[in-house]
Amino acid sequence: MGLPWYRVHTVVLNDLGRLLSVHIMHTALVAGWAGSMALYELAVFDPSDPVLNPMWRQGMFVIPFMTCLGITNSWGSWSVAGAHIVFSGLCFLAAIWHWRTGKPSLDLPKIFGIHLFLLGVACFGFGAFHVTGLYDMEGFDPFVPGGIASHHIAAGTLGILAGLFHLSVRPPQRLYKGLRMGNIETVLSSSIVAVFFAAFVVAGTIYAGLAKNQSLSEARAGSMDNKDGIAVGWLGHPIFRDKDGRELFILSVTVEFYGGEFNGVSYSDPATVKKYARHAQLGENFELDRATLKSDGVFRSSPRGWFTFGHASFALLFFFGHIWHGARTLFRDVFFDIDPDLDAQVEFGAFQKLRDPTTRRQVV
Amino acid sequence: MATQTVEGSSISGPRRTTVGDFLKPLNSEYDKVAPGWRTTHLMGVAMALFAIFLSIILEIYNSSILLDGISMN
Q: Most confidently modeled of A77-86, B10-19, B20-29?
């Protein structure tokens, strides 16, 4: 007996202390992951060869983000990891403290105004704080358009002004009713929007290499048709022969290396030439150490590839989630069972008398 | 589901604390609205302006808008 498994979280809906508590616990998990991941990566990272063995080939995920924000030595990284773990622990304790029941009526528009104001202050502070020289990067120059610090200063200012506006002006009744501002599920639905929007943006920019000031040459956005053209016919299997009718590579082709470890060396025996031709098709030739990590030679994706795939997938799921909770919010009156105490809900329809607009139901 | 009984709870209402009294005005206007459409048009104008702003900075960054002082290399 009791709730089916897919409805168990509804027990915190009408219980605000517990609703807050579960959100704080989630924050504790997020911060705890960040700190633990940083700790693990620092333990296995090998910084000795940034050219041939960069961090992304070692599967590092959070270290590139920390580097982007200006942490370039290991002491900075250890402090960031530690800070996140400590914060996670404090959030855990706060979540336990808030695990108590409370009366279910929150002034949501007021809460929004307060949070927006505080977020504006924090955002502005982050930008200004990083301009005053704690970290040393061009990205923190407030006059670099699109730069990190300049964005936060501008967005923070907007947040402060908008927060003050929302604190002094109550929402119009039409919007309050239309968006169901008295129901907390509307907050859930709009929060999901923020998540899926951010996920789509971030999947796209990481894919195109625009994030972290990387050049576009490594990964151009756009379809393969924009690269090769549109296929309109198959030309058949090609067989290359020389003038005596023999297949290519038998006698007439050699390979010579320029630069690198094989500089100046050339091969003319067909097996070796073929081998290097096949390898060249997939990119530059490297000498690879397969013994240390017992590499299995199977194609793997980079952290950027996984990031893009994962975030695009979650973005799609969260888009569906927004539609779900938004629909539940807007159509609550027809979605839930009829409460026998609510006599105003017994008759459906906009008019009390069928097709008679003069008997329109008056909104309170 | 375990519901714990809070000792000292009575029919006199929710528990009052110093911090709670200090914060009470912030959670006292539940369901208070401004009549009709009021600031909705202002919101529409602000949304339109923000959308134009975002389009401008996107197209600057994308080099679809070219400005004399800004070069995207």
A: A77-86
